[in-house]
Amino acid sequence: MRIRIFFCFEKEYNINVVTIYDLAKITGFSAPTVSKALNGTGKLSEETRQKILEAAKQANYNANMAARALTTKRTKLIGIILEDVTQMGGFEHPLFGGVLNKFRSEMDIAGYDIIFLSKALNKTMSYTDHCNYRNVEGVLIMNPPPGDEEIKNFADSGIPCVSTNEIIKGVCSIVTENTEAGKQACSEFIKAGHKRIGFIGPEFTEASPASLERHNGYKLALEESGIEYDKSLVEICDYWDSESGYKAAKKLIERCPDVTAVFAANDTVAFGIMRAAYELGKKMPQDLSLIGFDDDRMSRFANPALSTFKQDRERIAELAAECLLQSIAGIPKPEVVRVPAEFVRRDSVCQRNENE
């Protein structure tokens, strides 16, 4: 790659500057893999590491590091958008905290620092203005304000970005396979003999589709099993917190006292459902079986221990880091990447007798 540099005395110098992205194209490996090989980190085979190191040597990579610093304005900064307007726990959230930890590790390996782009701390600047002010090279969008028009404008700004929770048009989004997980959750209830199966989750939106997709999977399992979908067994709660789950569960159980199982859109909602069930005289799981989502750290200590789905936080973070680095390098990236969730079977689903 040839880069021109102009100094004040108007003399032109041509300097060959080799980057990790050039080495990625030469070797056929991804930019993060090249970075790991050069830094002596990561779990790479010796063959892979030596192939990359030999390519770097042939391309005179190390000798060009000083030249690269002179010829580019790269800050090696990655911005993070992680708002907490719906009280979802911020860094303590079972998905966001794990993704952020792994993503930061991947960025460290690639030689990047991260900064947070918070509207709460900087109300006078838009996300785009903040990025331009700090000269960030890319942005990880983890949890933007719901339905925020500014995020849509930011997606069109040309700043490389990737999303790990919401599907944003024009942005590569790494999200869990929610529909398949929802289908599996409902199928677990059906296999255990349940027919009156409810769903509780926050508002269905296209921009933040986790609740919608998990509900759609639940509905699909019912239809494939020949069980009629009953809208009265679906209750929309306000937020993703336990208090919202508690209020929604009281409405659902009082309206449909014959409900025997509930799929909760996440574990914190499920904890609220547990409290409501006990207050209404329901034994768990004998009278009401329950499955959550996220594998919250308290799920295994609940009474009964909560069956749930564990999102693959490390894989989501790895893919987000790789796609963002490729986007920074100008390499085309997919619109949406789905990562399977793992079902964690515990004690909150009870087998029903055929006569019940």
Question: What's the short story on this structure?
Answer:
By secondary structure, this protein is of the alpha/beta class. It contains twelve helices and 14 strands. Mean pLDDT is 85; it is low at 1-16 and 65-72.
User: Which stretches are low in confidence, meaning pLDDT under 50 for 5 or more residues running?
Assistant: 1-16, 65-72
Order of helices and strands: EEHHHHEHEHEHEEHEHEHEHEEHEE
**Rg, alpha carbons:** 24 Å
- Which sheet architecture does the biggest sheet show? 6 strands, parallel
Write the layout of secondary structure elements.
Layout: E1 2-6, E2 12-16, H1 20-27, H2 31-39, H3 46-58, H4 65-71, E3 77-82, H5 96-109, E4 113-116, H6 127-134, E5 138-143, H7 149-155, E6 161-163, E7 172-176, H8 178-191, E8 197-202, H9 210-224, E9 234-237, H10 242-255, E10 261-264, H11 267-279, E11 289-291, E12 308-310, H12 313-328, E13 336-339, E14 342-344
Parallel strand pairs: 3-4, 3-5, 5-6, 6-7, 7-13, 8-9, 8-10, 10-11
Antiparallel strand pairs: 1-2, 12-14
Helix pairs in contact: 1-2, 1-3, 2-3, 5-12, 8-9, 10-11
